[in-house]
Automatic annotation (TrEMBL):
<dbReference type="GO" id="GO:0000967">
    <property type="term" value="P:rRNA 5'-end processing"/>
</dbReference>
<feature type="domain" description="YqgF/RNase H-like">
    <location>
        <begin position="12"/>
        <end position="108"/>
    </location>
</feature>
<dbReference type="InterPro" id="IPR012337">
    <property type="entry name" value="RNaseH-like_sf"/>
</dbReference>
<protein>
    <recommendedName>
        <fullName>Putative pre-16S rRNA nuclease</fullName>
        <ecNumber>3.1.-.-</ecNumber>
    </recommendedName>
</protein>
<comment type="function">
    <text>Could be a nuclease involved in processing of the 5'-end of pre-16S rRNA.</text>
</comment>
<dbReference type="GO" id="GO:0004518">
    <property type="term" value="F:nuclease activity"/>
</dbReference>
<comment type="similarity">
    <text>Belongs to the YqgF HJR family.</text>
</comment>
<dbReference type="Pfam" id="PF03652">
    <property type="entry name" value="RuvX"/>
</dbReference>
<dbReference type="InterPro" id="IPR006641">
    <property type="entry name" value="YqgF/RNaseH-like_dom"/>
</dbReference>
<keyword id="KW-0378">Hydrolase</keyword>
<dbReference type="GO" id="GO:0005829">
    <property type="term" value="C:cytosol"/>
</dbReference>
<keyword id="KW-0963">Cytoplasm</keyword>
<keyword id="KW-0690">Ribosome biogenesis</keyword>
<dbReference type="InterPro" id="IPR037027">
    <property type="entry name" value="YqgF/RNaseH-like_dom_sf"/>
</dbReference>
<keyword id="KW-0540">Nuclease</keyword>
<dbReference type="InterPro" id="IPR005227">
    <property type="entry name" value="YqgF"/>
</dbReference>
<dbReference type="GO" id="GO:0016788">
    <property type="term" value="F:hydrolase activity, acting on ester bonds"/>
</dbReference>
Amino acid sequence: MISIIWRTATSMKYIGVDYGTKKVGIALSDESGTFAFPHSVVSNERALSRVAALAEEYGVSHIVLGESRELSGKPNPVMAGIAAFEATLRKRGFMTHLEPEYFSTAEAGRTDEREKVRDAQAAAIILQSFLDKQNASA
């Protein structure tokens, strides 16, 4: 007798954020929460409203933010802005996750040299790292 076990994947879409003091990169996952794709780059001033609008448009409740630290592990100066951004998202009812982002922008620069999309690529790298960990533990 052969038994077949079907694993039903829960549909879960995520938004990834590469937060910067001037520009913020945004990425989206596919419906299954398996793959991350660069979406857009917005000014820091527009980031919160854009992320919230995308979350509403795509039915996203989980947002992954790059956790910016020095190589020593200490939070770098950008981390204060990330923490404030995360706190505001949480107050708005979103579930947030921090994902280490060492060199994500540099890595994005190696894959796409167009500066205007580099931050969105970095957001996709951050989100993909988070998704890979989630899917490996499932």
